[in-house]
Write a structure and sequence with these properties.
The protein has 10 helices and 14 strands. It is of the alpha/beta class. Strand 1, helix 1 and strand 2 form a beta-alpha-beta unit. Helix 1 packs across helix 7 and helix 4 packs parallel to helix 5. The protein starts with a strand and ends with a helix. The relative contact order is 0.15.
């Protein structure tokens, strides 16, 4: 008995696998290693290397053991890049999800925890996003995540699939020094790479309508996020009531400039960030309430910003320029 974790060799997925193990729940991983790392998958966890678009790989994943449900994390997650690569984004995030749900139906698997995104909201005009805040994604990435939520809702109506979607934005930190964020587009790896190379980190735009002109985001620790994925899986497994979507938000947020100041403080490397042009598709501010997730999924911010940076820096130092 196990949960199929798509993208389970990636940064977030690998933390989810370890959280499942900590909870005494089995895992099966499918990952094409386009951005994941084989060494992130613990020994003894069945691993299928392949894309969700590969029917043979999907069949192998669903037949590796008895599958209780799916925690679907795999996908193309770069909002800015998705503006230049919309077809690729939709293929990886929508077509692949249709194939996954079709395979799940074939194998009578009817529980899904979906890794959605706060990008479904787009640019918002409220200080705090809640689950029914209007959806207006500003990138193909955000659009594809919203379509994924619609697919699950349709699967629920048509086939009785029990599901929930978890929406979040900037995931940072590390739950173990051997698990690190190697994304070439995420803020923390970009800053660490610049520092390791003796370069000055860059802020992408300082003319946003925010207090200091830089993007304001929720920054949440990856281990806290992983635990809430598992809490959702357990709730589905128990047949307990669950909402269609939850925000995993801090209720507060931090600006990119504040992040840079904290980076200098925690790493002990004094620097003043350079300012570059905006990245397409980046909303000015998005901070979400985590109240409903706290009620149902044991969601809470268990790490301070400095602790998030310190854990991420430790993992990055163990894998320089990874």
């Amino acid at each position: 008995m196990a949960w199929l974790v798509t993208g389970g060799a990636g940064y977030i997925g690998s933390h989810v696998v370890r959280s499942l193990q900590k909870a005494g729940m089995g895992a099966v991983v499918i990952d094409d290693l386009s951005s994941g790392h084989r060494e992130f998958v613990p020994e003894g966890v069945p691993f299928i290397e392949g894309s969700l678009l590969d029917s043979e790989a999907l069949e192998a994943a669903f037949t590796a053991t008895t599958i209780d449900g799916i925690i679907h994390i795999a996908g193309f997650k770069y909002a800015g890049v998705s503006v230049q690569r919309p077809y690729h984004t939709y293929t990886q995030n929508v077509t692949a999800m249709v194939d996954l749900l079709r395979a799940a139906r074939k194998h009578e698997v009817s529980r899904v925890v979906f890794s959605s995104s706060a990008a479904v909201y787009g640019n918002v005009d409220v200080d705090l996003v809640v689950e029914d805040t209007p959806k207006n994604p500003t990138s193909p990435y955000g659009e594809s995540k919203l379509v994924g939520e619609w697919l699950l809702a349709d699967a629920g109506r048509a086939y009785g699939v029990a599901h929930t979607s978890l929406r979040y934005f900037n995931v940072v930190g590390s739950g173990s020094a051997d698990l690190y964020d190697s994304s070439p587009h995420n803020l923390f790896p970009l800053v660490f790479k610049a520092l390791e190379e003796g370069k000055t980190p860059v802020i992408f735009g300082d003319d946003y309508p925010t207090p200091d002109g830089t993007n304001v985001r929720d920054y949440i620790h990856v281990a806290d996020l992983a635990d809430s994925h598992v809490a959702a899986a357990r709730r589905l497994l128990a047949g307990e009531p669950i909402d269609a979507a939850y925000n995993l938000g801090s209720g507060d947020g931090a600006s990119v400039r504040q992040i840079m100041e904290a980076m200098a403080r925690v790493t002990g490397i004094d620097f003043t960030a350079e300012v570059g042009p905006r990245r397409p598709g980046d909303p000015a501010r998005i901070v979400a309430s985590g109240e409903k997730a706290a009620r149902d999924l044991d969601w809470k911010m268990r790490h301070s910003l400095d602790e998030m940076i310190a854990s991420a820096w430790e993992a990055a130092q163990a894998h320089p320029l990874a």
